[in-house]
Amino acid sequence: MSPFAKLSATLAAVRHDIGALAAGNSEAVIAHKFGGSSLADASCFRRVAAILLERDDATQVTVVSAMQGVTNTLIALAATAATRDPAWQAQWSGLRERHLETARDLLDDRSGAVRVWLEARFADLADTLKALAVLGIPAREALDAIQGLGEVWSATLLRAHIEALGEECALLDAREVLVVSHGELGVSVDWQVSAARLAEWRARHPQRRIVITGFIARDEAARATTLGRNGSDFSGAIFAALFEARELHIWTDVDGVLSADPRLVPEAVSLNALSYEEACELAYFGAKVIHPQTMLPAMALGVPIHIRNTFKPAHPGTCIATVGDAAEGPVRGLSLADQLAIVNVEGAGMIGVPGTAERVFAALREARVSVVMISQGSSEHSICVVVRGADCSRAEVALDAMFKRELGQGQIKAITVTRDISVLAAVGDRMAGMPGVAARLFATLGRAQVNIRAIAQGASERNISVALDSADAARALRAAHAGFWLSPQTLSVGVIGPGNVGRALLDQLREAIPRLRREANLDLRVRAIMSSSRLLTNERGDLSADWSAQLASSDQAADFERFSSHVHAA
User: Fold this and answer.
1) Disulfide engineering: 34 pairs with which of 38, 130, 370, 372, CB 3.0-4.6 Å?
2) Per residue in 111-164, pLDDT tens?
């Protein structure tokens, strides 16, 4: 089943189960979720508490992740102990000292009770790890219990700090109320049971501020379990729904959802608003800020999600709601998924034969290979699917077995795999019904000398996806980002011969560049200047007033090949 089919099925179930929860709540509940990067050390805990206490939320629900890196360390601890490697003891000791030191730094002379509590919890963890070392295998139930401890520790630290500042605050261990099950579509919440348990808990804990553990829950058999990776964000949305919150603020370390990956496109901008559907599309194709599953409860109840930066709390971030920003252009953002491969099934015997596509997808399902993208021409001569690179060999073996007879008889010509593929996705609600969007994308990629391997667009017209060689991916992303005016149109400039005419040109460029960037959204970058004997290169393309002196003192000899390759960089 495709990701969006899963999303639709799960969303329908969520809307049915929790629709009744949204009625009759007179409190202005605001939910917050803080990730691990926001809780890296004691200074981060102070920053989080300051953000929360500055707000005048009538009821404030705060879901927290483990401290940065703790969940990975706990998983590694369990794995090390299960191999009977005594190195787990040093890892355990380091993790214990990190939390004790955070408590001392955060609470000063009030840290005694929390440190005693932490010592007891770490003693329990040591006993569990010793048992795993005896068994020699990390039992699933033990692993679920171990990897969720970080949230319990961080929630306890934050609650203690808020109370030390003079504010009443309740602590809710999610395992007391949240009941989930694990199925083929992922984690399912038992909304009715969870809501009933929360109502009982809330009757005993009427405090205005509540800190809740993210990531963890219990299953139908009351065993400790987790919501999977990215589960803390999902917990934030779940408790926003259970508390019937008006808004959910997810605090992270970036200024909201960006128009592209800033590591590849430094000019990427923070988006003011997105629709739920736009955010889902961007997330499925590589945007890391929010996981699609997180949005399910919010979508069901229409709760706006605000993506905010803990380290820049004054920045408004991105609002994800039912409707995005109608004032913006057709393409809101670009995502790039890498480490993929194309598997192509080709043959004249496929033309007009019913059930071929069904057999392709049945084979991939049996091999447990998830399909990222599908493309088929109307001639039916070939079907190509994009899969994760790690799955491509398994996909090829499964398809060879499924079509063994057709391959032997020549009805299927070949099943081929092309590795090192990336998928670039252009996303935007306003792409629907607007002519020329695809033409602009393909023209932009053509000018950037990027070859397209496969194309896919859904009937919603909200997403155009193209598969291309990974070697071209960064150049394609930058070109498309500028082509849709999501950032200034960037031109790389090189000048050969800075004599009288060249000098005048460069002086004119230096004066014009700020104005062109400001008024025409045009970003000219003078990346190289070459005389008959010297070469001056600049990564950013900033043309300083003393460029002539820099050229004269450059230690690079004139070299046309170096000049050309630098100017034509991605």
Assistant:
1) 38
2) 999 999 999 999 999 999 998 888 776 677 788 889 999 999 999 999 999 999
**Kind plus residue range of the DSSP H or E element containing 388:** strand 382-388
Span 1-66+168-254+289-328 CATH architecture: 3-Layer(aba) Sandwich (3.40)
Burial 5-31 (b: 16+ CB within 10 A, else e): eebeebbebbeebbeebeeeeeeebbb
Taking only the tens place, the pLDDT of each residue in 247-264 is 999 999 888 888 888 888
From 136, 142, 122, 120, select the one nearest 81 (Cα to Cα): 136
- The Cα 240–Cα 231 span in angstroms is 14
Q: Assign domain 333-483 one CATH number from 3.30.2130.10, 3.90.180.10, 3.40.710.10, 3.40.630.30.
A: 3.30.2130.10
Q: What is d(CA 64, CA 77) in angstroms, rounded to the nearest whole number?
A: 22
Query: Which residues fall within 8 angstroms of residue 335, CB to CB, at 6 or more apart?
Result: 260, 261, 281, 282, 284, 285, 286, 287, 424, 425, 427
Pairing state between β 522-530 and 534-537? antiparallel
- The C-alpha atoms of residue 46 and residue 51 are separated, in whole angstroms, by 9
Residue 304: helix, strand or coil by DSSP?
Answer: coil
The neighbour count for residue 449, using CB atoms within 10 Å, is 11
